[in-house]
Amino acid sequence: MRRALPPLNALRAFEAAARLGSFKAAADELGVTHGAVSQQVRGLEAWLQARLFERHNRRVVLTPAACTYLAEVGPALDRIAAATAQYGHEAQGVLRVNAPATFALRWLVPRLARFRAQHPAIQVRLETANQPLEALPAPYDVVIRGGPDTFYGFTARPFLSEQRLPVCSPGLRERVPLDTLQDLSRHTLLHSASLPRLWDDWLAAAGIPGLAPAAALTLDHFYLTLQAALDGIGLAMGPTALIADDLAAGRLVAPFPGPRLPARTYCTYVREGRAETVAAFLAWIEGEGAGLPDDSGT
């Protein structure tokens, strides 16, 4: 029996515009023009012989019937995407992971050898990005971000918590002592452009909000801030999860035990209906986050 199916491109345009509430945003996500999305939606409305959107200047609003339609179409497209990923990539043992650059560089990459030792048949393809999960242009099997947050069609699983506190190289502390909080006025404080208020928040929590450092240096990426601390340039606000290895090896020291600023928990975000390769990675990364020994003997 032949299925009466509308064009797939029209369904994709409708689902994106409905989810994002904007033809322009849908065009940006799909990599097409605003006019192309509008044309696809009009074509779907003609195919259905029903109106899907009410147009209001720069935004669009779903009709009641279209809301019901979206509730069916959205999960169906997710299932198609999941099935395609499983056939095209998962069946070949490829696992696509997206993580923030600093987390990947300082926590995930140093541990990936242990995952490969346990699962030699799974090939990890790691990409880094800092944009929100819903803005990622490519489908990934596992996305790592802070949270836990709620995203349509994804399951969030926390695996690693952290806090933030000042850290520096042992050489810097020897050259310019840090015996009291007031000694910070003799040092350079390292800032990250993406988290500009960390030092202000920490100084306020420490009871010295008006302290003026000897100098300040702002870098555009957080991992550069940590590298500057390792190189003895100044003090950085170190995330405990990402500097644990450096503290244990003595490459960094924490001159003050507190206060510690709260930070978001690292979570995995996975589309519903994950494959066995994804389940294996989740079990491994949750064990790493909990500090559990692995099975590889390494």
From TrEMBL:
- Top-level taxon of the source organism: Bacteria
The answer, when asked if ATP-binding is one of the entry's keywords, is: no
Please state every residue range assigned to the domain named HTH lysR-type.
Answer: 6-63
A GO MF term = sequence-specific DNA binding
PROSITE patterns on file = HTH_LYSR (PS50931)
- Any keyword Transcription? yes
Q: Cross-referenced InterPro entries, in alphabetical order?
A: LysR-type_TF_proteobact-type, LysR_HTH_N, LysR_subst-bd, WH-like_DNA-bd_sf, WH_DNA-bd_sf
Any one Gene Ontology BP term: DNA-templated transcription
Keywords assigned by UniProt, alphabetized: DNA-binding, Transcription, Transcription regulation
Query: Per the similarity annotation, which family is this?
Result: Belongs to the LysR transcriptional regulatory family.
Put simply, this protein is called Transcriptional regulator GcvA
Origin species: Methylobacterium nonmethylotrophicum
